[in-house]
Amino acid sequence: MISQGEVLPDFERKVAEFCGAKYCLAVNSGTSALHIATKSLGLNNNDYGWTSAMSFVASANVIRYTGASVDFLDISPKTFNITPEILSAKLEKAASQKRLPRVIIPVHFAGQSCEMSEIAALAARYDIAIIEDACQAMGGSFNGNRVGDCRFSNAVCFSLHPVKSITSGEGGLVLTNDRDLFEKMALLRTHGVARGANVMQDVGPWHTEMQTDGYNYRITEFQCALGRSQLKRLEEFVAKRQRLATHYRHRLENIPQIRLQQVDRPEDHAWHMMLVLFDFEAIGKSKKEVHADFRERGVNLNMHYYPIHLNPFYQDLYGFSEGDFPEAEKYWRSAFTFPLHVELEETDVDYICDCVEEIVT
């Protein structure tokens, strides 16, 4: 089988078992996973959905795909995640304006989980659904329990893009403990078409029928075979990233011109990204100049991400402007993403950190 064979459900079962969730669906991207989760919760043109201002645009786009309106939450200047305090203040204001969201999508930025127990308690108070955007956090934990167990959310979504914890080339996963939600998402994955025991009109074993709107979000058997193989090494990969991140932090934490992500439980972090914030004023160089200095030394820094509300599309559509979410904007002006992947060695980290010391001092 090339598509929808026996490897697919086996891969899904193994992911669900690893994370401690009841159900898992594999799809062709993390965006597709977020979309079918959001769509299955019933958002429509009259609804609002909230997510972090600091994320890849997909976190917001999937809300918009349902017809709902998008709004954002600012981030903590320490962890770069949304916090219960930020959420609580915005919910109180939205309740007074009768503009509460139907769904909230917390983003586990760089692989560190948001404070999901408190966020879930707030959402329950206002009867709001939660989808965890854990695309960067596969292999991570929250309070010792694996991200993906869905104990604090309706669904959790992972990405299997090549730069993530494990990969299937391209791909995504959505997990849930809700049987009804699982069945809705499964239908959306394949054009809304049901077959076998799920058809409404039993006219023969050949019969298929479209029961709802849907999409072609299927993943191939090849990708699932790779994903299943990679899953066996997920803990190894995350452990390697953790060792490298720990070495980075040991080398960089006492340099006054830079700042690192606050990490309360390093052992729970999936370490998708190594984030370093620079005080460019203290260094006496612009962000472009510092980036060029690293390039000259053979180190390619990246930037994740441009705050979603500052993208021209979202400014034109909703009227967002600079200053709306100041902590996300401060982060963007200061941050670089340093190399962090399983082919990197501690000697590479030492070289990069030596470059930091040369450039900022």
Report on the architecture of this protein.
By secondary structure, the chain is of the alpha/beta class. The protein has two domains: 7-231, Aspartate Aminotransferase, domain 2, CATH 3.40.640.10; 234-360, Aspartate Aminotransferase, domain 1 (Alpha-Beta Complex), CATH 3.90.1150. It contains 13 helices and 14 strands. The chain has helices at 7-19, 30-40, 58-65, 84-96, 116-125, 179-189, 221-231, 234-252, 280-283, 287-296, 312-318, 326-334, 346-360, and strands at residues 23-27, 48-52, 69-73, 103-105, 129-133, 141-142, 145-146, 155-159, 172-176, 193-195, 208-210, 258-260, 274-278, 335-338. It has a seven-stranded mixed beta sheet with strand order 1-9-8-5-4-2-3, sandwiched between helices. The longest helix is centred in the last third of the chain and has 19 residues, at 234-252. It starts with 6 loop residues before the first helix and ends with a helix.
Provide a concise account of the structure shown.
This protein has helices spanning 7-19, 30-40, 58-65, 84-96, 116-125, 179-189, 221-231, 234-252, 280-283, 287-296, 312-318, 326-334, 346-360, and strands spanning 23-27, 48-52, 69-73, 103-105, 129-133, 141-142, 145-146, 155-159, 172-176, 193-195, 208-210, 258-260, 274-278, 335-338.
